[in-house]
Design a protein that fits this description.
This protein is of the alpha/beta class. It folds into two domains: 56 residues, Winged helix-like DNA-binding domain superfamily/Winged helix DNA-binding domain (Arc Repressor Mutant, subunit A, Orthogonal Bundle); 185 residues, Rossmann fold (3-Layer(aba) Sandwich). 38% of the residues lie in helices and 25% in strands. The strands form four sheets. The protein has a seven-stranded parallel β-sheet, with helices on both faces. Strands 1-3-2 form a three-stranded antiparallel β-sheet. α2 crosses α3, α6 packs parallel to α7 and α8 runs parallel beside α9. The chain is elongated. The N and C termini lie far apart (39 Å). 40% of the residues are buried.
């Protein structure tokens, strides 16, 4: 395979997955790790990617993978993260549940709770929780975003601005040392910021693929979260960054 073909395949894989490991690329493309490192160096020089420890990520802060793609990625890790997060929800709580594939799985773990009040901007989360007799669901207004079926915008902010909650559970577009917690959509991030500020306890649910990613818009500083629930594949540098900033890290294994 010629170098140009190989580099085009690397970019194609990154557009699908946002980040990828050098070892995985070497195996897929049948070349040495050193060859992959040289390819990544050239792609970084051209501005297409950003090299990170042990791999690379796509250098586009606004390129969110599709909901369908995300729902099929790291599903085992997301299931474990969702189950662990559900352990922090008690009967009688009032909680905010964010949009996302992991938060939807988290909502599905709450069917046995009683006298639970859930505020959400996710239509799939609301539809799931509406089935459970022990859960009262409150949705915000706002503009609906396509495949994600998420509500945001001025009407969403206005409808929830006077609501205060026990716990907020948010999804994560990316987490990096440079950017903190980031996401891809301004309106949804602004709503997320407000609900974090209105919560007594604040939890982030993220699998390892979100580490070392800086998305388009900042949601929160690391210190704004109390607990991050993730999986054991999350890079040690990110785990240390969290704990050094006073965040409790929970590995869902």
């Amino acid at each position: 395979m010629f170098q140009q073909e190989r580099q085009e395949q690397i970019l194609s894989l990154l557009r699908e997955n946002q980040s990828i490991r050098i070892a995985h690329l070497a195996m897929l493309l049948g070349v040495t790790r050193e060859t992959i490192r040289k390819d990544l160096y050239e792609l970084e020089q051209q501005g297409f990617i950003k090299k990170v420890h042990g791999g690379a990520m796509l250098n586009k802060t606004n390129a969110e993978p599709s909901y369908t793609k995300r729902s099929q990625t790291n599903t085992a890790e997301k299931e474990r993260i969702a189950a662990k997060a559900a352990e922090y929800v008690e009967d009688g709580d009032s909680i905010y549940i964010d949009i996302g594939t992991t938060t939807l799985l988290f909502a599905q773990k709450l069917k046995q709770r009683n006298q639970l009040t859930v505020i959400t901007n996710s239509i799939p989360v609301a539809a799931e929780l509406a089935k459970y007799p022990g859960v009262k669901v409150i949705m915000c207004g706002g503009e609906v975003r396509g495949e994600e079926l998420a509500l945001s915008g001025p009407l969403a902010i206005q409808s929830l601005q006077n609501i205060y909650i026990d716990k907020a559970f948010i999804g994560v577009g990316g987490l990096s040392v440079e950017g903190g917690f980031t996401d891809y959509h301004i309106g949804e991030s602004e709503l997320r910021k407000m609900m974090l500020a209105h919560a007594k306890e604040r939890y982030a649910l993220m699998d390892h693929s979100k580490a070392h990613i800086t998305a388009f818009y900042k949601t929160a500083n690391v210190q704004d979260l109390d607990v991050v629930i993730t999986d054991k594949q999350t890079h040690p540098n990110i785990l240390k960054y969290l704990t050094d900033n006073g965040v409790e890290v929970v590995l869902a294994d």
